[in-house]
Design brief:
Elements lengths: L4 E4 H6 L1 H9 L4 E5 L2 E6 L9 H10 L24 H9 L4
Parallel strand pairs: 1-2
Antiparallel strand pairs: 2-3
Length: about 100
């Protein structure tokens, strides 16, 4: 497991795509504001849970809201190239350095 990383809020915002990828890979991030820790970003442990079950849990905790309809009924919006808009937005936010 990668060791925890502490970064400033501005840096986190600037390179969000990079840091989210690191969290997906198992790294925990501590976000600071003017040198003081304000938040921790940790990977979600979804082992053994379906996406539907995890979303139900997050709704119960008040972390997310939604219609409660099954995900199979949610239609993904696509751009003209057959890609989901969410993917296009993520790609646009990737670091270009």
């Amino acid at each position: 497991m990668p060791e925890p990383l502490t970064i400033g809020a501005r840096e986190f915002k600037t390179r969000l795509g990079t840091y989210l990828r690191q969290v997906r890979e198992g790294r925990t991030l501590t976000i600071t504001d003017r040198g003081r820790p304000v938040a921790t970003v940790t990977p979600v442990d979804m082992a053994g849970q379906s996406l539907e079950a995890r979303l139900d849990q997050l709704r119960a905790e008040g972390v997310v809201t939604g219609t409660g309809k099954p995900l199979s009924r949610v239609v993904s919006r696509m751009d003209g190239r057959g890609h989901a808009f969410a993917d296009a937005v993520s790609e646009g936010r990737e670091d270009r350095f």
